[in-house]
Amino acid sequence: MRFKDRVVIVTGAASGIGRATARRLAGEGAALVLVDRDAAALEAVLAELPDGTTTQLHGMDIADESAVETCVAAALQHFGRIDVLCNNAGIACGQALATDQDMAEWQQVIAVNLFGVVHFTKHTARPMRDAGRGAIVNTASVAGIRSGAGGNAYSASKAAVINFTQTAACDLAQWGIRVNAVCPGLIETGMTRRVFDHARAIGKAERLGSRCELRRAGQSGEVAAAIAFLASDDASYITGQAIPVDGGNTASLNLPGMKV
């Protein structure tokens, strides 16, 4: 029960890693502020939480700073505090070459994946500053570390999230606020489902995750476990870090077994 009497905001909570994070933290006693643009799907998450979990739901666009400010104010009014922020919401992009970029797509991806993180960090760090403590965990990606794991706009946005994690950690440490990121590898979520469905349809499901050292794809719950650790007091001396949760993908040249 590491999060008993703690209030946690989880963005992108209606699916994938965000949904798994909500379940994990609720199971450890957290009161939850769940955020997603799909308000109906948020309602479905409630059925998966332990009985007695206190929640507040916000169907909203995290790229809209005024909506973020309103959300944080409502959470403070209802709960009186915010202890943890899990910035998980994000969107993918196409695989267009650098010569064929759609700038409207770039703007949308950056607005959600980067500015959404910035907005929520800005407005939750203020009450955390007043409290003299807090933890922020951002969901970046291995695509922000090396190429080949996402389209150009998505990869750039996640690299920016990693850098913002580091600079924000330096800004906020003076008030006891820790800021870290997880960098998931290939995880089956709503965002990646088409990849998994295609592999299964053509009889190549066994190849999913074959280019990482553990030779398998990951599960949302495995990323949620890492997020819970970084958000908890167990990680009290960790800040400014971007931790891959990728089965060893970024530890090699994507050629499993080459070091054996």
Characterise this structure:
The chain is an alpha/beta fold. It has a single domain (7-246), classed as Rossmann fold (3-Layer(aba) Sandwich). It is 41% helix and 15% strand. The chain has seven helices and seven strands; from the N terminus they run E-H-E-H-E-H-E-H-E-H-E-H-H-E. The protein has helices spanning 16-27, 39-46, 65-79, 103-131, 152-172, 193-201, 220-231, and strands at 7-11, 31-36, 55-59, 84-87, 134-139, 177-184, 242-245. A seven-stranded parallel β-sheet has the order 3-2-1-4-5-6-7, with helices on both faces. Helix 1 links the parallel strand 1 and strand 2. The model has no long low-confidence stretch (mean pLDDT 92).
Shape: globular
The name of the CATH topology is Rossmann fold
| Order of adjacent strands in the largest pleated sheet | 3-2-1-4-5-6-7
CATH homologous superfamily title: NAD(P)-binding Rossmann-like Domain
Output the CATH class name: Alpha Beta
Helix/strand-derived class? alpha/beta
* Proportion of strand residues: 5-15%
Radius of gyration: 18 Å
What is the strand tally? 7
Measure the end-to-end span. Answer: 41 Å
Order of helices and strands: EHEHEHEHEHEHHE
Second-tier CATH architecture: 3-Layer(aba) Sandwich
Number of domains: 1
